[in-house]
Write a structure and sequence with these properties.
Elements (H helix, E strand, L loop, with lengths): L1 H8 L28 H7 L7 E11 L7 E8 L3 E8 L2 E9 L2 E6 L4 E5 L2 H7 L6 H9 L11 E6 L2 E6 L3 E5 L2 E12 L4 E8 L5 E12 L2 E12 L3 E12 L14 E2 L4
Parallel strand pairs: 6-15
Antiparallel strand pairs: 1-2, 1-14, 2-3, 3-4, 4-5, 5-6, 7-8, 8-10, 9-10, 10-11, 11-12, 12-13, 13-14
Keywords: Signal
InterPro entries: DUF4292
Pfam family, one: DUF4292
């Protein structure tokens, strides 16, 4: 399944600390929890207003197997579609698309494809709450984890703000409940900068850092993203977004003949 981490995750996000054997810590807060926090939660819940954005990216991955630097085109129609195309040394390597209904992708080198609901992506990330809206937010560097004033403490730190779960967060999706410890860091402008999510059942971790932001069309876009997935082994994906274009484009997708479907295992 590792190759599909690239097809889908590079459609995800946007450099961070390496996950150590012990849990990475967030910036130390020296203040008590902020009680008057309505403006903060309103700011981080603000919806994207762009119509569509095309992002040119370079992707480097460490998954235990050699993978060359990939060039990617990631195209997002707000609330509707995430489409991407990956090339290696000029040749197309993979293509994928996510909609509200699920995800599809094919990998040209071994002639396989996926066609699934978001259970496949949740399996890759070792979580259970990713749907289309969460995927789009993750890609854009916005809050993609369910948060509320009642369940989190908001504190100020040297670089902005930190949200930490007051107690174990139980998230139920498709009848399955998982428990997480969650910490999210934001800069002084309320932009998400770091996420560390720990599954308490197995100590698996998902860590994402967003950096080098640019303001375009009244929205902050991260130009650098590092995703670390720590389970039985550690996978890392570094995405450098080099160009943003807000015009619409065609997004062809069809699985070539004689490709074999990959099932979730």
């Amino acid at each position: 399944m590792q190759k599909y981490i690239l097809i889908i995750l590079s459609a995800l996000a946007v450099t961070s600390c390496k996950v150590q054997n012990n849990q990475t810590t967030t910036p130390v807060s020296t203040t008590k929890p902020i009680s008057n926090n309505a403006s903060f939660f309103s700011a981080i819940d603000k919806k994207s207003t762009f119509d569509a954005v095309k992002i040119n990216s370079k992707i480097d991955a460490k998954t235990g197997s050699f993978i060359p630097t990939l060039d990617a085109v990631i195209y997002i129609e707000n609330g509707q579609k995430v489409w991407m195309n990956l090339t290696a040394v000029i040749l197309q390597a993979a293509r994928g698309v996510a909609t509200q209904e699920g995800i599809k992708g094919y990998y040209k080198l071994d002639k396989t494809y996926i066609d699934s609901d978001f259970g496949y992506l949740n399996k890759l990330l070792n979580v259970n709450f990713i749907d289309y809206n969460a995927l789009q937010n993750l890609l854009l560097g916005k809050t993609f984890i369910p948060v509320s004033e009642n369940d989190y403490n908001l504190t100020q730190n040297i670089s902005g703000y930190t949200l930490t779960s007051k107690q174990t967060q139980k998230i139920t999706e498709n009848g399955k409940t998982s428990e997480y410890k969650i910490a999210l860091d934001y800069d002084a402008d309320f932009n998400l900068s770091h996420v560390l999510l720990t599954n308490l059942a197995n100590n698996d971790q998902l860590e994402i850092t967003y950096s080098n932001r640019e303001i375009l069309s009244n929205e902050s876009f991260p130009k650098s993203v590092k995703i670390i997935i720590k389970a039985n082994k550690t996978d890392e994906i570094l995405i450098e977004n080099t160009k943003f274009d807000f015009s619409r484009m065609e997004t062809p997708y069809s699985v070539p003949a004689n490709y074999k479907k990959t099932e979730i295992k």
